[in-house]
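Table S4 entry, Short chain enoyl-CoA hydratase.
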Amino acid sequence: MEEELVLSQTEDQVLTLTLNRPKVMNSFNFAMLHALKAAVDKARFDPEVRVIIITGAGDRAFCAGADLKERATLTPVQVKEFIYTIRNLFTDIENLPKPVIAAVNGIALGGGTELALGCDIRLAAETAAMGLTETTLAIIPGAGGTQRLPRLIGKGKAKELIFTGKRVDAQEALDLGMVNKVVPGDSLLDAAKEMAAAIRKNGPIAVTQAKYAINQGMETDLSTGLAIESNAYWITIPTKDRLEGLAAFREKRKPVYKGE
């Protein structure tokens, strides 16, 4: 029986997607790209999924980027297809109407770091290492790395890391702002689930609109960003969840949000 390339598990409205090619450090071939895309597309419209966690199988690697053995067999046109597919997939992940947490459990190089950058929040194991190492292979980051990394850590530092192909350990990644938090490897998934639970208990429509306002507003000027925020807020006003939040506060109980 063929092994699943992306494992899916849903618990308490949190979907955990695990890249499952540990023998090759969870590197992306075409098949795993398509498997992850299928899982992401399914989660997008699943009302039972409020938060997504993406991690890698095993304790060595989150994702080592593209499968270079497969890459060596591809024609130039096929390489273009691969880059087009992976770039659009990571953009789809970034634009999901649900928060996505990357649990970086080990090596995350090239496309592995780019996958993490496409997520909303990044938690890293103490043993993690990250880097956009493509220039060491005479190519450049092609799945959003040249755009998302400077937006996250600044242009100058991003240029340094990309031009040199330098790898950074978990602590340096935290210092640079590439990750939100570093935890011991054996508690990484628990930490990700704890953060997911803290998000899941809040109003899902509000969380979706907050993500939209931040993502879209950061790409424009302040005045336009404030207008985006205003419109996102208006969407929350007629919801049943907003009334439930007020009722729960008045009745001194925890709210039960249904995404309505």
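The chain is about 50% helix and 15% strand.
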